[in-house]
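Subject: mismatched residue count in predicted assembly?

I count 513 residues in my input, but I want to confirm that the predicted structure covers every chain. Input:
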Amino acid sequence: MRKLSARHHRLLVKKTRHGNKRKPRPKFQESNSRFVPFEVEVWDGKDVETVTCLNPATKPPSVICLNKNTDETIRFLHHLSNSVSGLKTDKKKQTDWIDRKPNRPPQIKRYIGFEDISVFATAPALILAATYERAKIATGKIPPAVNFPNWSPQAFQTLYEIGFFEIVGHAPAEKIKEVYVEKLDSSYKVSKTLRGANADGLEEASDVISELLDYLSIDEAICEDLIRDINSAVSEAMINVARHAYGESFIAQSLKVCLQQWWMSAKADKSNNTLTIAVYDQGETIPGTLPRREWYKEKIENAMRSVIPNFVYASQHGTIDHEFINYSMKKGKTQTGEARRGLGLPQMQDLIDVCPDGTLSILSRQGLYKYDKDIGVYKRRLELELEGTLVEWKLTLPRGAR
Amino acid sequence: MEDEIMISVADFSKYPSGRDAQDGSFNGEKYRTTVLEPALQRAISDKKIVCVSLKGVMSFGSSFLEEAFGGLVRKEGFTKEQLKDILRIDPGKPNLTRYQKTIWTYIQNAK
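Triage response: the counts match. Full output below for your records.
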């Protein structure tokens, strides 16, 4: 007689104990019985309309901040990047944000609820605006704002001031100005998002920074030098995007629409006298572009094999992205391999050294690199990938004498 | 000074940045080829020196400075010794002295 396999043996024991019945699967209706589609108000820049929402709202973390709540914020942005459509094919499909069919009310599948946000930092707001801008272009349709009067004051003010409504096509946004005035917290100010393809946007960026320093009442004696140092660092971030972020092969291979630009915004916070500047792109990332050259791969592999035997670069995708960023922060380290190049990223860090206090954070693909004037370098792998690269300076400034 | 040809970076742009046209309109290559190199050639023929003022400039990106000044050695064929004789960098303000030093470092390191 043939011996029973262990699996077959377990199956027979189970059948003896519980009979030949399959475990009933929950019926679709039952599993959804707790959730009842509900009505929400949507606004696409024209009229407010009531539609039915078929799923519960997606709840972002209450603290959306890449410094204070890094992993949860990355998880939210990762989800956003995957769920908010930016695919190249979407325009052909003519998908709409609101599903309209005859003889039934218009419907949306789901939405992101900003009701419970207590902190909404500038950088994630900038990434969110960039994600929706691409989605608008990919679909050819304006994404509606859902239940916006219920958004938390923090979320509403940040997205309003950053120009989110204009970016996604809700202009003129005068209609929502009343809500903005009602929720306004005058202890901080966020600049409108600037966009550009290279450093030609520097003068405009400089004007924005100047305005925010004025808002913080920074002593005029230090203002000019500070703006100059900020401009020098920001210009290098813009140039990096122009030069490296959107290579031809990346654009060709990308499944998503490539806007080939940077997004920039800044925030002045009177409560702690800080100026935060963020520059973001949706490009190939620093770890993605650095090893493009074979010489670099070999160099990295040789160096890493002393630690990890049989190290092969391709198999390490994502795991050492923070090390790649760290490597590129050293002067003269770049994808070109020429010593005269690769000065831009270190100059971004130099800004921190000339300021009284501050941090530089670079998040690119799955790497986090942080430079703090007091603590030095901190780097780690992120749980999930960030799409593109974010460079953020947070400068603590001396109290103004004006 | 009569023996000096005075040029100001701010006359080119208050916001110069980048190496070439890909990086932006007011880039280092453009400044070098349209302003700096012609001024240096004139200085050689007239036996003068070129004084470059940094006053009024609101950004000093490393890409711009390396391409504009380091490029004089790399691409225009000037020697480092020659530039020491015919080029003077005037910071204009004490706070800009570090950029003056940076420029000479780029010239010195250019190959």
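The first strand of chain B starts at residue 4 and ends at 8. Marking this ticket as 'not a bug'.
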